[in-house]
Amino acid sequence: MSDLALLSVTEAADAFAKGEATAEAMVLACLARIDAHDGQVNSVIRLDREAALDAAAAQDRARAAGATPGPLSGVPMMHKDMYYRAGRVSTCGSKIRADFKPGKTATVLQRLDAAGAIDMGTLNMAEFAQNPTGHNAHFGDCHNPWSLPYCTGGSSSGSGAGVAARFFAAALGSDTGGSIRLPASICGVTGIKGTQTRVSRSGVMPLSFSMDNVGPLTRTARDAARVMTVISGHDPLDATSAPEAVPDYEAALTGDLRGVSVAVPREWFFDGADDVVVRGFEAALDVLRARGASVTYVACPSLRAIGTYVAVVSRVEAATIHANWMREHPGDYAIHLSGRMYGGYAIPGTHYLEALSRRGPLLRQFCKEAFAGHHIVATPTLRMRVPTLAETSIDASPDNWARHMAISSNTRPFNYLGIPTVSIPCGFDDRGLPIGLQLSARPFAEGRALAVADAYQRETDWHARVPTIP
């Protein structure tokens, strides 16, 4: 391949391990692509050019000396600017933390380092990870590489746009209401949020105590499986991280869907859905059937309550985390973020406790409705076609609020439920913007969701298409 920046995670790691490409050459290829195109996309907050080249050269020397490569050795990556690395500024996309230098390094970054990944810097994001579009008043809006006037999805905007633009092979995002899956869908890449507690959150900026998730955005489900295998697992520094053993997710990708039963909820996910999205989703179901899966439409009345409670939990927990800053620096927040934050202070504590107490029963009810006799729940990731930045800017017009919030309607329920969910590209709409397929599994069954996603990608090439950036 002439352009090494086009290599996926597994392709890059395999090329390095076989001596077909050096880490330095792959990093240089990514840097060249960033230099050429990120002026239009605006996905990068800080590019650690020299540090990345030094790390790549060190890996090349170790490889030449006979060292055994790690599962991610030589792979260029960048991450949402909310993952702490000791002594390095982590802005969290905000004015308030513009000069913040943490004293510790996030556990997930340490695990990626140990696996050989090359960290090239940090990425644009919604301010404090709190919007679904990719707008940022402090660092500038991130633009969709498929068509620059359109939004990228958020809050992991730079992660989605940068992976799609082939600026790097993979990126970490975070997902509290869909912030991995939305940019994955809108930018035409793969993104996964694991089971709640599956990946350590130590050293990661918090937004919601009970709904934050760490996960990767990649080109393919196989890439996501490799990264998830590296970063998942219990962490003593995160008391909420689960002790369950982590399987080799990549080893489970067989492509065989015979015997796999897919459930499609009738409620919620198709309310007001655009026809082109529904057609893309139904075509994706046909691909799963051709691979051997069965598809059944099921009733899930629990979704109405879930959709209400998720907003209560996320608003109250975010308002609690930001309480001091909201008192001391209220003018340092973007207008749309202040509007969301203040709403959390108006929700009674009894409503928040009710939302928490109903979580377990509603998870059991949803599993009974959707997973009884089924392995996977399939839905569109977004109900709507990808909107423009102008159409979703609340700062420009309060009339855009409904459209802005509707973007995450189909992703939020799975944060409340805490179950693993993957988004993969499944086509393009009539304006040439990506459509996403969302696949969810039972708790700690990430491997099942990734296996179905991988089987779909063996039959399609949506994930392999590269945007042409002006």
UniProtKB/TrEMBL annotation:
Domain of life: Bacteria
Amidase domain residues: 26-449
Species the sequence originates in: Roseomonas fluvialis
PANTHER family documented for this protein: AMIDASE AMID-RELATED (PTHR11895:SF176), TRANSAMIDASE (PTHR11895)
Membrane-crossing segments per the record: none
Protein name: Amidase
Gene3D superfamilies reported for this sequence: Amidase signature (AS) domain
